[in-house]
Design goal:
Layout (H helix, E strand, L loop, with lengths): L10 E10 L2 E11 L4 E5 L6 H8 L7 E6 L2 E2 L5 H7 E4 L10 H6 L15 H7 L16 H14 L4 E5 L7 H18 L2 E6 L2 H7 L2 E6 L2 E4 L6
Bound molecules: adenosine-5'-triphosphate and magnesium ion.
Adenosine-5'-triphosphate binds next to α1.
Length: 228
């Protein structure tokens, strides 16, 4: 496909606003995620980090502002198309009954994705450091860390340009947390994926060593890339 705007950022968020019941959660949020960049967003609990990610993926309609995906105004795309280009991986692994392979193929059963070729299971698993031997095993007995990596592999099957992670390690023990962090870093460094990762873990912010934004009082500000 011809890239309509080769110089555009992966994601450009401009003056985004969202209120619930008269309470402004996002007031004026603007930032950009460069192509191939890993960007970290932190903020206290309840400041609107998840709301922001949901506005970007159109799970919530913002009240005002604009989101551009590789130079295209997301408002001109349908929501399904937005969610194919920008994939959101949440805090808790969400798997379906069945095998690892069935989980990887699940998004391809959606009507809007049925025309797409089925993903290559072994290569998706290797991207997240899981063995291909798991493919025909049930997903349910996997450890939570393995389940979260399977969720990331499933997201990668649709080859999204942008990955959003909403506190992807919050449900994990310290060892599994580090493995998932390394998986995210590798996806960025080795496959050049554009990634926005939300966390409120300041130690994790340090370990990721990426440009960092802080969301507070409905606005984002840049920090020094450490916990400051
Ligand atoms: N659909 C909704 N309807 C009404 N209020 C909502 C809705 N979604 C979120 N909120 C409110 O918006 C605020 C921000 O919520 P959000 O989940 O984005 O916080 P967060 O920064 O992700 O917090 P945490 O770090 O705990 O995940 C909260 O006060 C929440 O109650
Ligand atoms: Mg949240």
């Amino acid at each position: 496909m011809i890239d309509p705007a080769p110089s555009a950022a992966a994601l450009e968020v401009a003056r985004l606003a969202k209120s619930f019941d008269g309470e402004a959660i996002l007031r004026d949020v603007s930032f950009s995620l460069g192509r191939g960049e890993l960007l970290v967003l932190r903020g206290e609990s309840g400041t609107g980090k998840s709301v922001l990610l949901k506005c970007i993926t159109r799970l919530i309609e913002p009240d005002a502002g604009m989101v551009c995906i590789f130079g295209t105004d997301a408002a001109t795309l349908d929501a399904v198309e937005v969610r194919r280009r920008v994939l959101l991986v949440g805090q808790v692994p969400t798997l379906y009954e069945g095998t690892v392979r069935q989980n990887l193929e699940y998004p391809f059963s959606f009507k809007s994705n049925q025309h797409l070729p089925l993903p290559d299971g072994p290569s998706l698993l290797s991207m997240v450091g899981l063995s291909a031997d798991l493919l025909d095993r049930p997903a349910a007995p996997l450890s939570v860390g393995q389940q979260q990596r399977l969720c990331i592999a499933r997201a990668l099957g649709l080859d999204p340009g942008i990955l959003l992670f909403d506190e992807p390690t919050a449900a994990l023990d310290p060892a599994a947390k580090v493995v998932v962090e390394e998986t995210i870093l590798r996806l960025n460094r080795e496959s050049g994926r554009s990634i926005l990762m939300v966390t409120h873990d300041v130690e994790q912010v340090r370990r990721m060593g990426a440009r960092t934004l802080v969301l507070a009082r409905g606005m984002v500000k840049e920090t020094e890339g450490d916990a400051g």
